[in-house]
């Protein structure tokens, strides 16, 4: 991306004002719920395109000089080539999803990358059709990306015998055990900033316990504590996908993937401030002024803007003690209303089946930690944008159900359940984290 912006600056074609890295990367994220938002590029800016260096799986080969991988545009979108029949079906899938009035499909719209239509584009002298999608890693400084292909069955009803055999032979142990597989991921090491890439050959060898460890590695949790804030960001989206997959009968998603993305630069900030807080034994007494926050007026929060040594102060409520020790002798009062993806995560968290047996014991502690974490995150960022998310991608083998075919897609649901369970298990490891 930096090459692109450098070029536009030199040619004087960019209409963007120069901004600091921080502004460019963190403060401009779009928050629209609608997947068909308007293109991001200013009308006068020329579209600049290059091979997408952040692609961790899928088609990438070059045939002659025809590049089969994704392209990155300088307007926050990526372009996915439409070459095979299955990819043509993917266009139809997005087009139908865009206009459908079916409630289940409307819900799915919020779980996939934003779709901006399709277009012809000439790259390296070859004209091709492309699907235009939101780049989920946009503005990330150190994007950590994992592609998780969902389902024991990864071939669609139109697959040939040969294709079925090929699919059955790949990632066999992993798919059998977990109902998903990992065709690729990349992670920036928190300590060194080094980028480590893991391709499909690595993914094909994964099975048993190594699968969970690969996910832990992706989360920068090898030899270090997993970050509760990061896990909750992922879970807030994963629970939505899980809830949808438990009910929906509209579509069968063969070979679709979850694309997990987070910014290691933001994770590093989060860990460093946690470390500082732990060392000081309390949160910082003075907080730099923020222009926007989760708790700005109108955001629905009762946060007063003040933080004391005991934690954030809420309007009309007592300040929140941060130490888990204090829980044993304090009566629990519900947290203030906060409208954000975080509060949705908390709501899902409280109602999730997997935690019901621990419900009474853990709830008050979780809520207390959680409220503190919300403040920590909003303190670190001038906007409340999450720096980790997950979306469903790759609908080349997706099929809409007719009325007679309507039933739950067990193949997809099962894979999601198992993946969510791993994240919930990781989250339990962080139960003692107080931010
Ligand atoms: O060889 P194919 O034709 O089955 O290609 C696979 C692609 O299938 P498709 O062409 O869309 O039907 C397949 O594409 P989809 O993700 O299914 O769209 C993958 O790229 C697959 O690689 P992997 O399983 O992720 O390691 C590709 O598999 P390999 O390159 O690992 O064989
Ligand atoms: N919306 C997106 N934002 C960022 N990266 C994406 C997006 N969609 C796909 N990718 C990247 O491209 C890879 C392949 O995408 P996918 O749709 O699965 O293509 P294929 O059909 O070739 O398998 C993903 O693993 C991911 O790295």
UniProtKB/TrEMBL annotation:
An example Gene Ontology molecular-function term: inositol-1,4,5-trisphosphate 3-kinase activity
Enzyme class: transferase
Enzyme Commission number(s) from the entry: 2.7.-.-
Domain of life: Eukaryota
GO biological process: inositol phosphate biosynthetic process
GO terms for cellular component: cytoplasm; nucleus
Similarity comment text for this entry: Belongs to the inositol phosphokinase (IPK) family.
Record protein name field: Kinase
